[in-house]
Amino acid sequence: MKRRSLVLILLLAVILLANGSLWAAAQAEVKPTGPVKIVYWRSLTGVAGESQDEVVKRFNESRSDIIVESQFQGAYAEILQKLQAALAAGDVPDLVLLDSPHLQIFAKDGVLVNLDDFVKKEKAGFLNDYIPGLLADGYYDDSLFALPVLRSTPLLYVNGDMLAAAGLPRRAPKTWDEFREFSKQLTKYNAAGEAEQLGAGFTTTVTSGHWYFQGAVYAYGGLVSDEDFNIYLSSPEALAVATLWQDMVFKDKTAIPSNSHDDFLNKKVGMVFGSTGSMGNLLSRADFEVIPAFMPGQKQNLVPVGGSVLAMPSTDKNRQWAAWEFMKYMTGTDAQAYLAEMTGYMPNSTSARNHPDLAAYYNANPVRKVALDQLAYVRPQASVISLPKGTEILRQMLEKLLIANMDPKQVMAETTADLQKEYNENFK
Amino acid sequence: MSKRQLKTALRQEGVVPIRMTRRAKRDMFAFLGFTFPNFFLLGVFVFWPILYSLYLSFFKWNMIAPKKTFIGLDNFQTMFNDPVFWLVTKNTLILAFFTVVVKMAIALGLALALNKNVKGRSVYRAIIFSPTFTTSVAVAMVWGWIFNPNFGLLRVFMRPFGIPPLDWLESVTHSLPAVIIVLIWSGIGYDMVLFLAGLKNISLEIYDAALVDGVSPWQNFWYITFPLLSPTTFFLTITGFIGALKAFDIVAIMTDGGPLNTSNVIVHFLYQNAFQWFKTGYASALALILFVIIMAITLVQNRLSRRWVHY
After folding, report:
1. CA A107 to chain centre
2. Contact B103, B110 (CB under 8 A)
3. A158 and A174 in contact (C-beta within 8 Å)?
4. Measured between alpha carbons, how far is B292 from B133 in angstroms, rounded to an integer?
5. pLDDT digits (tens, 9 = 90+) for A10-24
6. What's the pLDDT at B308?
């Protein structure tokens, strides 16, 4: 009988241990003593990752009542998956770094903390310091759900030495027409008909291909989609871009789909697109003159702003308070000035932009200032990017145009239909 | 008939009811105690997910929203009307067929060659086996470089034949073959080792007898070696197909299913739906279909095996 009860107790223990939610519920009742410990899920590697850890370290040294633990969770897409799994398991981090279009997906289903109440408790005009175009991405349904950090714009990177060798000036093309012309001048084929050097590489990856395409459409004066999910891919502006890119690959044969900056660094292509965040990497790795420049204009200079936002999935009142304190610190002036200097991402506030350290840094490294200057010509990304399958559908569009060489009109119509269907499935 | 009468009647028929002695009861308890942890773990990590996934396949759910919407068989209807699903299924079957058949043919050839007394054969065996214990991520990354049209190794080998450099992984016609090549390469070693073991099991006396009868080398292979290897061949076919139908890592890293889904396979498509596009219900329905496909192929192979496998 004794042995039997022992076995029963053991079984009960196993079941209780396995049932994490019971355990968690019991723990939540305990009042915290000592500092509040919160978990921050970060993304990005290299300098962009290390400098976030440095910001966390500085914060922890400055506070005795909060301890932030920074955990690297992989690229943006991986964070998305892990957060999804964490939500299903009911065990979420307190803060998370999200690619800005992903915010909507989570805010829509109410798993992020609405920050409006926290803002109300701050001084009046607390939000005024943030650059409005960057802050805008943090809103869903007129409520604030995230603050901007590590923001970027798409840039055009050109190989100055290659331009000079082709008899061109050492500067980036100013318009898309000029871009096409430069690309022709840079291209070289050998006697066997093999391309030795090409003008440009077009990114078709799921993460950023759509971003550069949007930039080109904006330059032509068009839109990919507006805030109400009206899609304009069959507009003359979007069609002009689609046709231009396709013609450069298949008619002029001066450009290729190229998904890695290695083609640029190995001097296979003379011009590529990249994020502001790639600047440090490209400048340090190239053995030639890299000129970071504005995305080409056409009717206007206008680019979609990208990068991350800091959001709060925390479910505990005490930890939410601590998370807000850290959010303020990380998006605050000193941390932003430091992050901008280290990574090449843009400062998110007027005060950070005017920070003496950062001003001095830009004076010493004028080439880095391009990103900041382009900030005057930004608007948010197309709304369709926030659809779960949006970026994938746009990747397919680019593949149809630049790999399968399908008729642009048909491609744009198909893409519009796919996006519309995805919108109906998710938002209706 | 009362209970008592029933018992008597049964006893007369020789049916004795089992009565558990104390000892038997204790043994039973010990049995449960030992097997429970295993059943429990299997239940939590295998059976429960399978049943839950089956349940989810009738819902529309994004894994974030607190509410799941019951939609009956809509996920399956969407699937059967989705051209991408059919493309992906076709790719998966093509991939499985070519991977398994070519891989086994080469592995068998190598096993036959290395079963002979060639100099340094253990070195060859080790080299051929080495991809088996190499991480698939590393394999996919390195092959990604080999296939690179600008500085990949492959183009160096192709050039003498006048074949222009080709961007394998960015081509709608060549991305799937590229994935198949890598899967074959990384799986040959394992198959070869099993074939070698199978060859060792064939009694030499049979070959001696055949030698006396004066059979040709081809007859030797076709009438003796191949039939006697058939259990190994069968095992490798079944496991190979199941493995190839579940191909994921190489596809995810080398091509991400692209371009235009031309190298996409079911498991990767399922992963995209569940974890990138938040279509958990649809992904669960895909999982169920994959289960059915694997089950069907295995059953057919089992049935066919009666005709050609000799134990």
Report:
1. 17
2. no
3. no
4. 30
5. 555 555 445 444 444
6. 84
Enter the pTM of the model. 0.82
Residues 6+ apart with CB under 8 A from A363: none
What's the complex ipTM?
0.79
Strand partners, A290: A159
Look at the block and give the residue holding tokens 């400055």. Answer: A62
Architecture of domain A34-152+306-377 in this structure: 3-Layer(aba) Sandwich (3.40)
Domain A154-304+387-427, classified CATH 3.40.190.10, yes or no:
yes
- Nearest-angstrom CA–CA distance, A395 and A393: 5
Q: Do A193 and B164 touch, CB atoms closer than 8 A?
A: yes
Where do the structural domains in chain B lie, given as residue ranges?
A: 1-45, 74-308
Beta carbons of A76 and A67 less than 8 angstroms apart? no
Residue A335 CB-half CA count within 13 A? 22
The residues of A whose Cβ lies within 8 A of any Cβ of B are 3-4, 7, 11, 14, 18, 77, 80-81, 84-85, 87-88, 105-106, 109-111, 192-194, 204, 206, 256-257, 259, 263, 266, 268, 388-389, 392, 395-396, 399-400, 403-404, 426
How close does chain A come to B196, measured CA to CA in Å?
A: 42
CATH number of B74-308: 1.10.3720.10
The letter for the amino acid at A129 is D
Task: Please name which of B155, B200, B194 lies closest in space to residue B174, comparing C-alpha atoms.
Answer: B155
